[in-house]
Amino acid sequence: MTLTYKYKLSDKSAQRRLRQHAIALNQVWNYCVQTQHECERQYRAGAPKRRWPTHFDLQKLTAGSSKELGTHAGAITEICRVFTENRDKRKRAPKFRTSFGPKKSLGWVPFRSCDRQIEPNGIKFLGKLYRLHGTKRRPLPETIKGGSSKIHSVIGGYASMLKSQRIDLPAMVKSGSTWASKRSPQ
Predict the structure, then answer these.
(1) Selection from 106, 100, 111 nearest residue 76 by Cα
(2) Orientation angle between helical segments 12-44 and 73-90, nearest 10 degrees
(3) 172, β-bridge pairs
(4) Cα–Cα distance measured from residue 39 to residue 36, given in angstroms and rounded to the nearest whole number
(5) How far is CA 124 from CA 71, 176, 186, in A?
(6) Domain chopping of the chain, boundaries
(7) Are 128 and 158 in contact (CB under 8 A)?
(8) Do residues 157 and 8 make contact, with C-beta atoms less than 8 angstroms apart?
(9) Which of 10, 25, 49, 138 is the right S-S partner for 133, CB 3.0 to 4.6 Å?
């Protein structure tokens, strides 16, 4: 069973840095959408039918842009992977993500497990420590599965989403006055 923990960021300057990362990663998402639209336009114009750009194709196209955008290359890789998953699920290109204006998309900074380090009171990403609110009351999970992300909530402020693998204990049933583990039929 996978549990998802949500912690609120407690630092205002960290929220500004994450907003800058989210704007840069929206540009990567929009580049993937533009590449998909260009591919579909060529098909409609009579080009021979080919497959859609894969995650690896988009990753090659965005290679080297992390330094220019000022974000981590692993986050760009995650954007390309999530884009291809959404596109293949819906069988069409997803919408553009706007970074400014009244209808802007909420910020989203995905990162892989190898791109971040877990500290006792926060997460270190790109050399910066992002302190999390509520870690004394509910400590960070010891085993974090796969990647996680920083998301911007509707009411304002960023939060960190961490996925943890939980070991399932055998189900217990009451037999008479004692509890016994429920055995599966063999």
Answers:
(1) 111
(2) 50
(3) 181
(4) 5
(5) 14, 51, 47
(6) 2-165
(7) no
(8) yes
(9) 10
